[in-house]
């Protein structure tokens, strides 16, 4: 099929590349000329395992193209994907300006009948708005149907998630449009779930809100475990053996970050308030997460009284491993609050350092290795569970630090292991190991 994808951000590029890989002819359109040029040269604008290789392969095969020109992209497109950003406004609502602009661009350039598919996460009712904008601005007498097809990709595994996802949700009010999008997605071999447009839009928000709830729930349990002498890892394992609960997304830590959970949970609270519904459960989930992101700081203050003059190494800065994405990362909150407390911050991340520099306080010192960061520090905060960081041994900490005090925000180590070394090791929802003396 001839496909146009508007927006080559995270969702758009992964979608475009993967659709071309299953044999479709895809043109990705973006207003950023230099970005388009770089993609043509085989350089992916985002770090995502496997993406660049697939991009180059399909570009060379002639199935994938990049352009800044809408006319070129929509000329004979049978399906047009909208994959532009829906940033969060001050009040937590989603900003739909880019979506609306794309709807106009599509309407003014379409040459033949087409299905317009919204991939971006949009509030319930947005696809109807997209359809009415398209109908208002349509330049040619062609038939346009709108389909909601939310994405469930995780950063760091977006390509493999696209090929191995749990479901593809297709929300349509036209059976014919739904059938076209179903056909287009068939080569992925993933279960397809068809529903109406509004339900599909809601599935995306409800899924992310539910996963965020799971995380905040286990984090609250972890806080209780600490007070009551239980071990949250064992509790999560025992809970997860119940199929109804499931063992995923029960990893206690310093909260969720990233481009989706914080934004989508806030947006859903706002969406609910517009229909006069107080989503109290989700508000608590958000509040728990905000506090959880500060947990290592709270623990360190309890331990030391004051952090004034202390140097704290933040190991891992990205919101999770295998990405350079710093959006809503706990490291940002921690670094700013540490500086306010009078502490010095040394940061290290295997790949997110450039992005971190834009968001962490100006005083932050960056090192070229975790070892270097730890050697400069009085206290270590493990913020992101990169393999590289998990591979640091307790022996290393003992060698690199005069007084090895480690606050692990991601439970990277076995407690039993910690007891064998002369370290002080504080983790999440588990007892602290105090073996210094
Ligand atoms: C998420 C959803 O998983 C995906 O379906 C959606 O399309 C976009 O949002 P992503 O933000 O890439 O994907 O990352 P994910 O792996 O889900 O992790 C999100 C955050 O939750 C991370 O900060 C992670 O550290 C945290 N997390 C995740 C936990 O703290 N505990 C867990 O058990 C799982």
Structural summary, described in words:
Residues 313-415 form the UDP-glucose/GDP-mannose dehydrogenase C-terminal domain. Its EC number is 1.1.1.22. GO terms for molecular function: oxidoreductase activity. It is an enzyme of class 1 (oxidoreductase). The chain is of the alpha/beta class and 437 residues long. It is 45% helix and 14% strand. It has 19 helices and 15 strands. It has helices at 10-21, 33-40, 51-60, 70-74, 97-109, 126-137, 158-164, 175-185, 197-228, 232-240, 261-274, 280-292, 295-304, 330-340, 353-359, 370-376, 387-390, 394-400, 415-418; strands at residues 2-6, 25-29, 64-67, 79-82, 114-118, 144-148, 168-172, 192-195, 311-315, 344-348, 365-366, 379-382, 405-408, 424-426, 433-434. Uridine-5'-diphosphate-xylopyranose is lined by residues 151-155, 208, 211, 215, 249-251, 253, 256-258, 260-261, 319-320.
| Total beta strands | 15
| Overall helicity | 40-55%
Strand order of the largest sheet: 3-2-1-4-5-6-7-8
Could you give a short account of the major beta sheet? 8 strands, mixed
Hetero groups in this structure are:
uridine-5'-diphosphate-xylopyranose
Q: Which structural category do the helix and sheet elements fall into?
A: alpha/beta
Distance between the termini: 69 Å
* Beta-strand content bin: 5-15%
The radius of gyration computed from the alpha-carbon positions, rounded to a whole number of angstroms, is 24 Å
Shape: elongated
Mean pLDDT: 96
The helix tally amounts to: 19
Low-confidence stretches: none
